[in-house]
Design brief:
homodimer, 12 helices, 13% strand, globular
């Protein structure tokens, strides 16, 4: 288990080999064992293999090659639709059309997704999270025909790896852990925590390619820009509302 | 790995035995290997062992006994504070004070939390998620002194189990998985998917104790009520805003 967790790397190149149904079922079943709030299990997994639908998803994920190449694409959704239908069929009046319910369901979906990814890696598969599921949630809803009460919160591609990338760098443990209470970072803390990352050859290459003075500028000016974040913030909040999760009065 | 995932159950009774620092570090390090958006690692783990602080957290978590009994409490936080400080020290202007950034950081924190829980279980520890971290986020922020840019999204207690509960029931795989697109549930689907759960002895006992006709009513009328959900929805959205994540204009 620990070895699987510790050797995780995102895989972006896949063999064309498909994933056996039995293996896929084992992986999905592993997902269902994650903790869920009150055992409500308010999530769904949409497993997409159809080439045409995958092509549409590929466009939502900014045409990242791996979406077409990997045999399986799973969309993890916050899902109160099933639970609400059950309530209505059982003389119970559901009160889950609000933001807390959305967030609760999103937690369920995300814990499930991590179980699925780790089980997949144990089975020799590679995985890659697509951070873009929330960016173009509305289009994903259209493509996958997600009803009211369902919002995509993460997407993952799975398949047999056709590359062996090294481990990705991480901040030192002291950089992400606090004891008892949050101990806010001093200027010196920040310098120390980011020192190794900034000293990587890879960082130097990125600075040259992007003609930037600091790695942080590559994030703020190129990769995760304020104007994009604002645009997608509005879009995602609209989607949460459209899918029926903003009745907070 | 798979066996660890498949035998997960939430533990609510703990031995007083503490967790060795080396084991704890191994578990926390396992957390850091989870996928994070753009490798920004915008999360923090606050590890609380201090009895007095734990007692304050216990109140936030509706005085659930296990918060006092388990030796370790970890609060998983969406955290752009560290990243923002780094940007500002590196002549970069962060644009991460919006909802998308909050949600991105929450995903990081939640994937990390699941890695931590599975690594803990592999080390013979028991864990239990506290769904209440989002309910009383503002008080947790006060207790743990979380600065702007930091929001708690999940909390977990860890310790050596003093009980051996059976596996919790789950809906059948067909109930939570869709193929290619979302195949919305018919009335018959709902009846079939929930049949086993409704037939459990445990369900019958709950109906008797709560004097209800259906299990769904126990959720809607007792456990997760509309008025509570609405109250905590507003609170949590206010907290997200107060912590600096709602500048979407």
């Amino acid at each position: 288990m620990l070895d699987i967790i510790l050797k995780h790397r995102s895989i972006r190149r896949y063999k064309s080999e498909d994933i056996d149904d039995e293996i896929l079922n084992t992986i999905l079943s592993a997902g269902t064992r994650a903790s869920t709030t009150g055992n409500m299990q308010v999530y769904s997994m949409v497993v997409t293999r159809d080439e045409d639908i995958k092509k549409q998803l590929w466009e939502c994920h900014f045409k990242q090659d791996m979406v077409l190449k990997a045999p399986v694409h799973i969309t993890f959704c916050a899902d109160f639709n099933r639970f609400n239908k059950w309530c209505l069929q059982r003389q119970a009046i559901p009160g889950y059309d609000n933001y807390l319910s959305f967030f609760t369901a999103a937690i369920d979906a995300l814990l499930v997704s991590q179980n699925v990814c780790l089980a997949a890696e144990e089975k020799g598969l590679g995985i890659c999270y697509l951070g873009t599921a929330t960016y173009n949630a509305r289009r994903i809803i259209d493509i996958l025909r997600l009803p009211s009460g369902v919002v995509p919160v993460a997407a993952v591609v799975l398949g047999y790896p056709d590359e062996e990338p090294g481990l990705t760098d991480r901040l030192p443990l002291e950089g992400v852990v606090h004891y008892d209470r949050y101990d806010d970072y001093t200027k010196e803390d920040i310098d120390r925590i980011y020192a190794d990352k900034e000293a990587l050859d890879q960082t130097r290459e990125l600075l040259e390619i992007n003609k930037k003075d600091t790695l942080a500028q590559i994030f703020t000016d190129n990769r995760y820009k304020r104007e994009d974040n604002i645009h997608f913030s509005r879009e995602f909040l609209d989607v949460i509302k459209e899918q029926g999760f903003m009745n907070n009065e």
